[in-house]
Amino acid sequence: MSRIGVVGAGYVGLVTGVCLATMGHEVTIRDIDPRKIAALADGSVPIHEPGLEELIAEHRERLTFTLSLERLLERSGIIFVAVDTPPTYSGDADLSRVMGFVDELAATGVDPRHLLAMKSTVPVGTGERVRSELAARGLGVGYCSNPEFLKEGVAIADFLRPDRVVIGEFDPADGDRLAAVYEPLGAPVVRTSVPTAEMIKYASNAFLATKISFINEIANVCEEVGADVATVAQGMGLDQRIGTSFLRPGIGFGGSCFPKDVSALKQLAGNSGYHFQLLTAVIEVNELQKRRVVGKLKKHLGELDGKRVALLGLAFKPGTDDMREASSLVLAARLIAEGAIVTAHDPVAMDAARERLRGVELAGSAGEALEGADAAVLVTEWPEYLALDWAAAGATMARPVVIDGRNALDGAAMRAAGFDYEAIGRT
Ligand code: NAD
Fold it and tell me: CA angle, corner 95, sides to 91 and 101, nearest 5?
């Protein structure tokens, strides 16, 4: 077993580090956020990811959390880099955290036994840039691109049972060293050049986002022509060339990956002189999809000025407290702009909501959010909302209007319970 370092204790870094500890490695995780490191050293987990807290407790003796880069370097051979790469105003990936880390490395000094494995999603060309920056400062260090494909909410299972591992290498010996870490997982490994590995990540996310925008447009047409998108998706998905996954319409994709990665790929193409038309449409469809809910609400309530609208679910999907680019943010802002009074609830994202949502009343429970509401929108399909006693909750609402933004509730049961129920692309 080896000594491994992880840079960044976020959704990817923490899961990576903790899963590697479960595989028997001695793992040192470094972050620059003192609150995160203090919380982790105290045994609490700064993010919501099912199963993570238990695994940290179980493998505590193989995990070290630190603010110190020197300590990380001293204790590690392979170093997984999982710092954030948020979007810039131009839609490109912001590489300031990645390059900031490179500057820190240059100041601290790495040596040839270190191997950087880049897990952050970075545009094609970043590996080459990092390598030449380090070389220019006389630092000989290995580098591999090792994009991560885990999904928040099921991140541990995704890390330990990946569909594939992608390793982009400048030097096959570095690729061998990294591949050995993943070997016990038994997953297919794609070994390739660094630029190709970087592109695999963007192309994968862009394709999944395209599938979502595609089915959302099919749903919108279904509404016009009286077809049922759920059955359309089922009928399409049974074709093995298409597959059933990512054919669930809703009120748009959000989260910390799809929106920024689609945009970054579009910009990457544009900066290289190619106009990626399809992705322009994928992004536009997604933006419009979030706003269509406002039209649905108006159909039932008329003008929204002074109307109370309850949003159930704020995280970008169930199983996480992550609200980055969540559809709830756009929807809340649109509703407030229409003069609506917005109340909202989420089982785990209330702290994130307090930071990000302005002008929204945050309720202590779903029932509280629904009380007196003229309409409810199911924004995130948390199991507890699906299991809600809707008939009882409906009795406390001013009007029994429910827009199911995730096609997750039982429409027939909702109508039988007296709701004006509307979903996406369903008659
Ligand atoms: P995150 O914001 O949750 O975590 C990043 C962490 O890096 C933060 O805690 C930050 O303080 C820390 N950091 C920044 N600079 C640092 C430095 N110099 N040294 C140590 N720590 C530093 O981000 P995330 O969601 O974990 O995403 C990380 C990367 O992985 C991104 O590029 C993202 O696109 C990619 N990715 C994310 C997911 C996902 O589901 N979240 C999935 C696959 C890939």
Answer: 165
DSSP lists the bridge partners of residue 359 as: none
What's the CATH fold of domain 3-192? Rossmann fold (3.40.50)
Nearest CA to ligand 1 atom 25: 11
Pair of tokens at residue 151: 């999904």
Q: Is 270 exposed, middle or buried (0-12, 13-18, 19+ CB in 10 A)?
A: middle
Residues 6 or more apart whose Cβ sits within 8 Å of residue 297: 304, 307, 309, 335, 340, 375, 377, 401, 403
Count the Cβ atoms, other than its own, within 10 Å of residue 201: 26
- pLDDT score recorded for residue 138: 87
By the 8 A CB rule, do 399 and 426 touch? no
Hey, whose CA ends up nearest to atom 30 of ligand 1? 120
For residue 32, give every residue at least 6 positions away whose Cβ sits within 8 Å of its Cβ, in sequence order, or none: 67
CATH of 207-422, picked from 3.40.50.12160, 1.10.3210.10, 3.40.50.720, 3.40.50.2000, is 3.40.50.720
Nearest CA-CA partner of 341 in 315, 371, 317? 371
Counted residue by residue, the chain has a size of: 427
Q: Is the shortest distance between the CB of 254 and ligand 1 below 6 Å?
A: no
Please state the pTM of the whole predicted model. 0.95
237-252: pLDDT as tens digits = 999 999 999 999 999 9
Residue 407: CB within 6 Å of ligand 1?
Answer: no
Residue from 6, 7, 12, 94 whose mutation best tests the ligand 1 pocket (most atoms within 8 A of CB): 12
Shortest-distance Cα residue to atom 1 of ligand 1? 10
Q: Indicate if 257 belongs to the active site.
A: yes
Mean pLDDT across the chain, nearest whole number?
A: 96
Domain ranges of the chain: 3-192, 207-422
- C-alpha 206/C-alpha 183 separation (Å) is 28
Q: Is 82 in the pocket of ligand 1 (CB under 6 A)?
A: yes
